[in-house]
Amino acid sequence: MKFFLDTANIHEIRDAAEYGLIDGVTTNPSLISKEGGDFKEMLREITRIVNGPISAEVLSTEAAGMLEEAYDLAKIHKNIVIKIPMIKEGMKALKQLSADGIPTNVTLVFNCNQALVAAKLGASFVSPFVGRLDDISEVGMKLVEEIVQIYDNYEFDTQVLVASCRNPLHIREAALLGADVATMPYKVLEQLLRHPLTDIGLERFLKDWEKVKKQ
Ligand code: G3P
Predict the structure, then answer these.
(1) pTM (2 d.p.)
(2) Cα separations (Å) of 72 from 25, 58, 100?
(3) Could you confirm whether 83 is annotated as catalytic?
(4) By CB atoms within 10 Å of each CB, which of 34, 110, 158, 180 scores lowest?
């Protein structure tokens, strides 16, 4: 299972990369706008830190505009993955980018038929937003389960990238369901490492060792 970091914050990316746990990065317009600065320069910097897929989203809502942006972004680095919204015009652009061999991530996916369409058009990744479904009282992970099943049924190569992960349970469930990737905020990555019994256990070991040293 791959871990992507869902952020445009360079400090977080640099820090997380030191764990050696980061296989890629996902950004979106909201995350980019939180950081400020030049979008392309930010992406260039990320590609220097992480050697893996880096998702960058197009902003046009028409296929021609999306393609123009996509070709421009793809020039930045071979690891740039073009993030395309799951809308009709986006699917036209997706078909062309698949033919061009440019990696893509279809975003804002909220049902399995959308995921099926994206896979048929050759998407490299599909991003179901689990947290946002949970927010409206739908079980986000149910969608991941269905997409994994459908992709298995037809042996699609599209990777299931679980997005909008908000807590460690989302990562646990994504792993149990066999999702290919989970993208998570820095805070969730850190939460994966923690357990209170680990901290208590370590404290006790060190205290006991102090007694040995005194003997
Ligand atoms: O990966 C998509 C993510 O950035 C959206 O997360 O928490 O805004 O739903 P959230």
Answers:
(1) 0.95
(2) 19, 10, 13
(3) yes
(4) 34
Residue 158: exposed, middle, or buried by beta-carbon count in 10 A (0-12, 13-18, 19+)?
Answer: buried
The pairing of strands 125-128 and 54-57 is: unpaired
Atom of ligand 1 nearest to the CA of 135: 9
Are 58 and 82 a contacting pair, CB within 8 Å? yes
User: Which of 152, 139, 101, 138 is closest to 123 using CA atoms?
Assistant: 101
Hey, which of 4, 5, 6, 162 would you mutate to test ligand 1's pocket, going by the most ligand atoms within 8 Å of its Cβ? 6
Compute the C-alpha angle 161/162/163, nearest 5°.
105
State in Å: Cα 6 to ligand 1 middle: 8
32 versus 24: the higher-pLDDT residue is: 24
The answer to whether the beta carbons of residues 165 and 184 sit under 8 Å apart is yes
Does the C-beta of 167 come closer than 6 Å to ligand 1?
Answer: no
